[in-house]
Structure formats: structure tokens, C-alpha cells
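Hello,

I think I submitted the xanthosine-5'-monophosphate job twice by accident. Can you confirm which output corresponds to this input? Input:
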Amino acid sequence: MQTMISAAEIQKRVDEVAAEITKVYGDQPITIVGVLTGCLVFLADLIRRLEMPLRIALVQASSYRGTSTTSGQLKVQDDLLPDLRGKHLLILDDILDTGQTLHYMVGHMHKLGAASVRVAVLLRKVGRQKIPLDPDFFGFEIPDAFVVGYGLDYDDEYRNLPYIGILGGVVDP
Ligand code: XMP
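Support: Only one job matched these inputs. Its output is below.
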């Protein structure tokens, strides 16, 4: 597995992103809306660096079905979500690729009555975005390759790698 971003680089950058988030929210209570399953490792690392009053809500979204090829079809399950009316939400996802997932999530959160909605992603793929959406916070911009590790998977494997790797020979078309 070729390393794209080392574990140490990720940890350093998560520190910085946490500081940026703290600067924006201060002591404001927030609800982190984690987009399962890819958000899990980033979420676990990030929240331990945040000191404002914080709740966690989870939503499941999938647009890839076990491979690195997008199905184009977004499936969202939000029955785990608590009442988000009047809450300040920070949506957290592993990667911004075409923008489909996060664009939908932002609209959905507004419909659920959020007081404010911001977006944080660990990775932002350059040159892939189809729907304009500027994340409020992001860790790294990466070239267009299929990446795994630190929560990101290929066929549900590799999520436990502490670094971001490029899966040999599997590159998005
Ligand atoms: P969109 O296109 O909606 O995609 O912005 C976001 C979701 O697609 C998955 N995705 C990836 N997963 N390696 C992965 O393991 C990748 O390179 C990759 N690119 C997109 C991911 O689930 C993300 O939430």
C-alpha cells in the first residue's frame, strides 16, 4: 500500500482543524453530525480536541456499493438522528468527492430545522466535484485517486489503517 498521508501528518492536521473549529464556534454548544461509516476515525480523533459543549448525531449515507466505482445512487438512513431543531450543526465526513453526499446533507439538515449548518471533511479530492460546495473546514486536498485508511474503505476493508493509502491499481475513472 502506497502511503499518501502519514499517520503523523494526519494527527498534526487534525490538531489544526480542531483549532480552526474552536476559533469559529468558541464556547457555542454544537452537534457533530457524523456521516457513517467513513467519518468514524476522524470523528473520534477530532472530538477529543474540542472543548465546547458537544453532542454527537449519526447518519448513514452510501453512494459506493462495495467497490471504488460510484453507483451514483445516494442512500441515506437518518433514523438514528435526534431532534436537531435549533441546533448548530457541524456535518463531518471523511471525503468530499463529487459533493453529492454533503450537498444533500446540508439541505436535509436545514429542512430538519437546524439553526446553522457547517461542514468539515478530512479530505477534499481535487477535480472531481460536480456540485459546488465549499467545506468550512478540511484537512487535506488530494489528487484524484481512490484512497483508503483512517475510516475510508474499499469493500469495507482498510478503515483501521492509521494513515491514508492509495490502493494499488484501483483509481477512480
Ligand atoms: P461524494 O461523491 O458524494 O462522495 O462527494 C462522498 C462519499 O464517497 C465515498 N468516497 C470514497 N471512499 N475512498 C473511499 O474509501 C475514496 O477515494 C472515496 N471517494 C469517495 C466516501 O464514502 C464519501 O463519504
